[in-house]
Amino acid sequence: PPARNTDGIQSWIARFLNEMGFSIDKWDVYPGDPNVVGLLKGTDAADYHSLIINGHVDVAEVKEDEDWEHAPFHPIEKNGFLIGRGASDMKGGMACLLFAVKLIREAGIELPGDLILQSVIGEEVGEAGTLECCKRGYRADFAVVADTSDMHIQGQGGVITGWIEIKSSQTFHDGTRRNMIHAGGGTFGASAIEKMAKIIAGLGELERHWSIMKSYPGFKPGTNTINPAVIEGGRHAAFIADECRLWITVHFYPNETHDQVAAEIEDYINRLSDSDIWLRENRPVFKWGGSSMIEDRGEIFPALEVDPGHPGVSALTVSHEKVK
Ligand SMILES: [Zn+2]
Q1: What's the 93 CA to ligand 1 centre distance in angstroms?
Q2: Which residues participate in catalysis according to the annotation?
Q3: What is the rounded distance in angstroms from the CA atom of residue 26 to the CA atom of residue 303?
Q4: CA of 210 to the centre of ligand 1 (A)
Q5: Hey, what CATH topology would domain 158-301 get?
Q6: pLDDT tens digits, residue range 34-58?
Q7: Which CATH entry fits the domain spanning 7-62+79-152+306-323: 3.40.1080.10, 3.40.630.10, 3.30.470.20, 3.60.21.10?
Q8: CA 57 – ligand 1 centroid, Å
Q9: Phi/psi class of residue 239: alpha, beta or left (left: φ > 0; alpha: ψ in -120 to 50)?
């Protein structure tokens, strides 16, 4: 991804849902990558709950060095398992959703509430297929996302990515390094790369503090990581690095918000910068989020708490027990 090649399967799903009596809304999120939303209007929609069932059609990329016995896009059956790229994540879940729809129609069951099926794009690279459906106005009382799961009722942690940028107001030649780091040099300057190293160390301290002090039921301790994922900086071996950018990926728990977590990081790094003679004058700049990891190199996945006592969760649990 992003191969921008989901139009084929999305057209197939749109046709299938249309045959099942759904009205179809299909639109390009990116050229070649459309979302499909099918609506099966309830017979008594005003008085009954509505349900969204959601899945994504994109799959993770196949890398050169992956050791496939068969072509990854030509699935095979082996020992009762279907093997192929995306069989588990999540053509299997998507097929279950479509099959459930088919069974309901074949059994002649008329649903009183609205049923909305969302087939979305872009999940694997953090693109906002589902968010685009929300922005388009699709809402329901309950939603089931049929992506891979270990069947715990525990909510969903969030992720935010951000850039920390350090920039020097002046650019110095490599030959001036002696003047800025040794006694009597008299030049007030610094390498943005060396200062970023200090910030990376600070992020590590904050990460460790979080792992010790924060927790959430059902999550492994220390799930709330701060990953220094990408670093870019410097201009040439003949200069002191006058800028450096760090792309971080931050995981947080269901009961936290991305704003809160970003503010904690900014506050900590700002205090750290106060204690540094050069960073005090050359403040790091923070840029959080975006709508695509690929297109604008940033993303926010909000967290979600699930109340185990919620009637929708109870209904799902009871149904699952019945068919297990
Ligand atoms: Zn998935």
Answers
A1: 9
A2: 58, 123
A3: 27
A4: 27
A5: Alpha-Beta Plaits (3.30.70)
A6: 999 999 999 999 999 999 999 999 9
A7: 3.40.630.10
A8: 8
A9: beta
